[in-house]
Amino acid sequence: MNDPHLWWYVTRASAVLAWVIMTAAVLWGIVLSTRVFRGADNPAWLQDLHRYLGGTALVLTLIHMVSLVLDPWLAMPIDQLLIPLIAEYRPLPVALGIVAFYVLAAVQVTSLVKNRLPRRLWKAVHYLSYVAVLAVAVHGAFAGTDAGAAWYQAVATVVVTATVLALIVRIIMARRRPTSAPVPAVAPTGTVPSLSEANPGDPLAVTRMRIVGKHPVADGIVRLRLARVDGRPIEPWYAGAHITLRLPVGIERQYSLCSDPADRGHIDIAVLRAEPTGLGSTYLHDVAGLGDELDVIGPRNHFPLEAAHEYLFIAGGIGITPIRAMIEALPPSRSWRLVYLGRTRSEMAFARELEQRYGDRVRVIAGDERAQRLDVAAEIGATDADVYACGSSGLLDDVVAATPVERCHVERFVAIDRAAGTERAPVTVITRRTGVRVDVPAEQSILTALQHAGVPVATSCGTGVCGTCETRVLAGTPQHLDSVMADADKDEIGVFYPCVSRATSPELVLDL
């Protein structure tokens, strides 16, 4: 192990591999952001590969640094490998390598806690990856002992060229105007500008959009196509996402996106007329027309499509909307089946289209065509596929009861009453950023108490189903009473929904 030749080879091999894999991770990140690789596999798999590449590059960089210390010929002191500009050997190129290491570590750490960070901070850290690639290129050119070798120059040329070309593609894709759904020349109904410009990509930002398409897709269901008023592409979103519409009648309503996530020229929603209380759906069906502008919040996603070898989709009625987007997002080679239930075939949006496009993969069960009810437990028990379901509360209850928790993914349109039989205790809420202490009595929601105390918290449905009021928990134990996602997932990312949820601890510290 003390053979200097061994450590020399380890040092150079780990350095070159770390450089190549780090560049591959950056290129893969560009691929994800531009979505030019859609169809290779589903989004979760693509993101996992991106993270694995970044993690591997970080590990190889650590091996490279350790080998520099253990190499008896070099025997570099540890402090010279950790503190920039103090190295005796070519201090500036070495310093650039150290900076690149810290950037790579920061990117990897923020990836692991992505859901706990503000999106703008996460994006800013990840943009530093471009700086790391440049720094490593200079480091390798002036600090490496193989810089003059033909093989090294070939590797450097390929890596640098690929990075430059990828950046050019990224810039072109970012500036490209949508072509699939051009906004028609209709006079705008208002002069409200886009409100999302100050913070693009923020899932709570408000974007001004125009209705560019409207047509029925089933009895009582209309599909609306929305495009940005400013003509820019829609922010990237993933299957399972939903938006919140702020309607001129003074209400907000949530609708799942049912279009292809790869098409950034527009987004589609399907709206079921809800009688007799459906004020929002009545407006969208009877009043809203082509050219009308609406404020759109999102997209947000609490029903993401995760990587799996096989999928069983179960949709009930209008619950087909997020499922349709998931099917669109999957590559043709992915194994999946859809069971689509409805009261009558005429009321089942996209049923004919799905049957024609996908054949035997789609099974439509209309109540007016068969009296026998679907045996949900038998359907799920016959497969080991991951189950994704959206529909009525009764259907989802059956799905949850029949599916192992690790394979069960559901989205509810109506919140479950989880507070029944639950003892509501008073709690003191502390906002970390403002230092406000709010004593919340048992009969009052945490959200209401915060708002009365002047602490702003975004909200929409107020029933624990839309996820708009998602808040990070820094200390204390939340009592989850919402229906947004599984409790274990909320605890894993450290969030809760104060519109309905409470706490089992006497104090709750929130990131507000």
UniProtKB/TrEMBL annotation:
Principal location listed in the UniProt entry: membrane
InterPro entries (alphabetical): 2Fe-2S_ferredoxin-like_sf (IPR036010), 2Fe-2S_ferredoxin-type (IPR001041), 2Fe2S_fd_BS (IPR006058), Beta-grasp_dom_sf (IPR012675), Cbr1-like_FAD-bd_dom (IPR008333), FAD-bd_FR_type (IPR017927), Fe3_Rdtase_TM_dom (IPR013130), FNR_nucleotide-bd (IPR039261)
Membrane topology according to the record: Multi-pass membrane protein
Residue intervals of the FAD-binding FR-type domain: 204-306
Key word Flavoprotein present: yes
Named cofactor requirement(s): FAD
Localization per Swiss-Prot or TrEMBL: Membrane
Protein source organism: Microcella humidisoli
Keyword Transmembrane: yes
Transmembrane segments: 6-31, 52-74, 94-113, 125-144, 150-172
Every 2Fe-2S ferredoxin-type domain range: 425-512
High-level lineage: Bacteria, Bacillati, Actinomycetota, Actinomycetes, Micrococcales
Name recorded for this polypeptide: 2Fe-2S iron-sulfur cluster-binding protein
Classification via Pfam families: FAD_binding_6, Fer2, Ferric_reduct
SUPFAM superfamilies for this protein: 2Fe-2S ferredoxin-like, Ferredoxin reductase-like, C-terminal NADP-linked domain, Riboflavin synthase domain-like
Assigned keywords, A-Z: 2Fe-2S, Flavoprotein, Iron, Iron-sulfur, Membrane, Metal-binding, Oxidoreductase, Transmembrane, Transmembrane helix
